Amino acid sequence: MRILIIEDEIKSAEYLKKGLGDSGFQVEVANDGIDGLFIAQSNDFDLLILDVMLPGIDGWGVIRRFRERSQVPVLFLTARDAVEDRVKGLELGADDYLIKPFSYAELLARVRTLLRRTPMRQQDIVEMADLEVDMRKRRALRGGQRIDLTNQEFALLQLLLQHQGEVLSRSQIASQVWDMNFDSDTNVVDVAIRRLRAKIDDAFAVKLIQTVRGMGYRIEAPLP
């Protein structure tokens, strides 16, 4: 999913871009309100992360004009913590408001929450860390290396990526990949995950497929 960050603090913008990129998002950055508004209106994004204090046009002006043409979620990220500022941002159409300084983990949680509220667009290319998956051509690359997957392995990887960051239970996976009811005595899901992990993760330092004990599995890039 695509995110636009409009932030004039260069280091903060680059930190967010790297973190969100490593978490599987496609990220672009603008460092002033004029460029940010133009990029936001000229491209399809799934989320805007918007600072208030911007050169050119401030965040209030950006969201006011952006809301004339789009209902894409907007997360305000700013040091302005007065109640009246938060109220103003929400009244202008912001979907959430996060005060600086913030933890990256909280930002990521809020980003995912906002994105879950909107219908997911089917992407042709999904990237996470150095994994690249072409959904249309059903092709996967890791670190530039082609990974050969069976139809069921690709379906499993596709399901995990469509719900990246979310824990999927064995029954959810079984019902969507194999169209079967999960039997607790059957280890088909665990075996499939183990085979997929052998191809996707074993030869690489960064592990993407994670086991959440007692709950299920998820795919997620580690926090920077």
From TrEMBL:
Q: Which GO terms describe its biological process?
A: regulation of DNA-templated transcription
- The OmpR/PhoB-type domain is annotated at 123-221
Signal peptide interval: none
Q: Which UniProt keywords apply?
A: Cadmium, DNA-binding, Phosphoprotein, Transcription, Transcription regulation, Two-component regulatory system
Which positions make up the DNA-binding region? Answer: 123-221
Q: Which residues cross the membrane?
A: none
The parts of the chain that form a coiled coil are: none
Under NCBIfam families, the record lists: cztR_silR_copR (TIGR01387)
List the protein's name: Heavy metal response regulator transcription factor
Which organism is this protein's natural source?
Comamonas piscis
In the record, what lineage is assigned to the organism producing the protein?
Answer: Bacteria, Pseudomonadati, Pseudomonadota, Betaproteobacteria, Burkholderiales
